[in-house]
Amino acid sequence: MNRTCNVLFLLVAWAMRSLPLFGEEIIKSGSGFIFHPNGYILTNNHVVADSREQKVVLSNGTRLPARIIATDPEKDLALLKIEGSNYPTLPIGRSRSMTVMDTVLAMGYPMYSKIGYDVSAYDGKINAIRLTEMHRPLLQIDANINPGNSGGPLLNDRGEVIGIVVAKINAMELAKTMGAIPERINFAIPIDEARSMILIAYPGGFTPSNRTAQLKDQEIFSESKDATVLILAPKNVYLPNGQAAAPPGLPSNEPPPAAPNKPTSEQITMKPTLLAFLQAFVQSRASDPVNSAMQFYAPNVDYYDKGIVDDDFIRKDVTDFRRRWPRRKYDLLSNPVAHGEGRPDQYVVTYRTAFELGDRRDEVRGTSDVTVVVQDNDGTYRIVSIQENVGNSDAHVR
Q: What global pTM score does this model have?
């Protein structure tokens, strides 16, 4: 895979919609679709991951509790079920039969809290069939995708589901890396990747749809809108002291639920997007614009030996350091290693860098062992803690 394709995948941002509480984002939303009349629903795993409960909103506005039947974080798929029967369904097609430039239609509920609860449809084409770094197929599409579309169906010209909308390019981050703003580069998981979950709903066997007649976009929308659902998933959120935030409606005089017990830290597989974030952070320390570094930090950070500081403090510190050392070079000496933090949305990452700092008179070289705690907000990363041990130098590195 060439460098451009690698950058595309590494800068994918999972499309979500959240509502704030206590300064955190706790209510996620996404889309999904009913494929079995007994209320089985497919969506993305990241839509429901670490949620306290799941609510499904039907096209007529009815809200129903749902339960998670199965998840596959590696494929980013989840199977939900709502009680009842005789629900409208979408026919499942065969994604392996799709080719580049085939017409597709994406359905979902983008930004429902801003634009309303009506299901939306976006037409486009398949622009490429790519492989992720995990060697899994991914459909690149140019249908317009927005936060909240995650988990929604991608339909072919016969109204069959051939994919599950999963991601869109983070245009601004890609622009910083490649110097250009991409347009309509979005992705969907081929429906064939969900075969094992579909068989859970159809234990006696399942035969994909064999429609032959092409439909107009208006016909596809009309036939599909009632089986396309909005999914609300209040997320477990933690306060800075490590305690879980109180769910909406909990009286303020009642103690919040305790945070889960922190397990022994174990090395975990580094996500490609997290690795790209850290590599970009290391390189940003050599760039001149202060904003190139500020974009990586959370609003409040446990910052070196300074304790908890805000972004104004960090901005001043970074500015002063750049002024002191106008020439800076940083190189990774080891692959970053990630460990679980005891919370599903945080990672402790360690790595070693070599640095060269200089001005008109002085030059300093050395190595630095860095430990950062990275907050993962559905694929958007921010550093919430950074510490380091500097070797072979008296310089205080930023």
A: 0.56
